[in-house]
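Note to self: keep these together.
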Amino acid sequence: MTKTFVSYCHHQGDWVWGRLAPCLKAGGAEVLIDRERFKLGKALVGQMDALQDQADKHLLVLSAGYLSSPYCRHEMDRAIALDPGFVSGIVVPVLREACTLPASITGPNPLYADLRDDRQPDPWTQVLQSCDATRLGTTAPAWLAARDDLARYLERNQSVNLVADNGVNWRALLEHLVNDYPLGLARVDLLDPDTTSRRGLLATIAKALGERVALSDEPRDLSDFKARLMSRSNTRVALTRFDLAPHRPYYDVDLFAALFYLIMDMRKLTLLVQSHTPFTALLPKDHPLTNTDIKTVELRARP
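Structure:
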């Protein structure tokens, strides 16, 4: 895993923390960044240098604010000193806003990524490839747009189906939503053998929510599950690999009717359903959940 040190000014902090770092991490890079690594009570410059010295790559987020900051110039000069001719590719310049570049960059005239408009996929591809972060399986703008749509729906307590092509790194996207967003999103993977039965699925969801309660045998398991959710505020659960659901004979009409009731009538459950096939296409005709108000976010593989 390539260790990438991100050098940026705090004026660009929201963009770095909210867009650049998540894509680097999802692409497979280890991100070295002050916000996550620096500790209180220790000298700032010493921590900067120690963290930077661990890096395989040095990504410079260039802007006028960056070039006017003594701390940023310190990091930039240390990075360029490792490869002043920009021959080995360990220094990755990224232009985030228009600015006058220093002679240490204009002299060697390296290729830099122009991300002043970060809706364009090609500069993102250059950055991610330079940092060996190539595991997104789709373009960075598409991955970020899907992230933003999912977060917006979940924040509104609106159930949503993430339809992701094979090869797209949807796992990292969900990991990002769980770790970096205040959604309280619990994860249940239908690949888990404990989820093969109806009662097992409900118990696994309850466990993921931190509920320490034993469910009764069928058919009382549904009532027990409902009682636990009714005692909570709206609960958000990610059900991944939902393509397995049609192959689970124990996932009966009573289970889906109960889920429909908790989602639509009681507003106590919000689902993020991940699948490769659209949610409604995985359900039989006239299935209770086909009428559920569930939004769709598509994440397609890179062409």
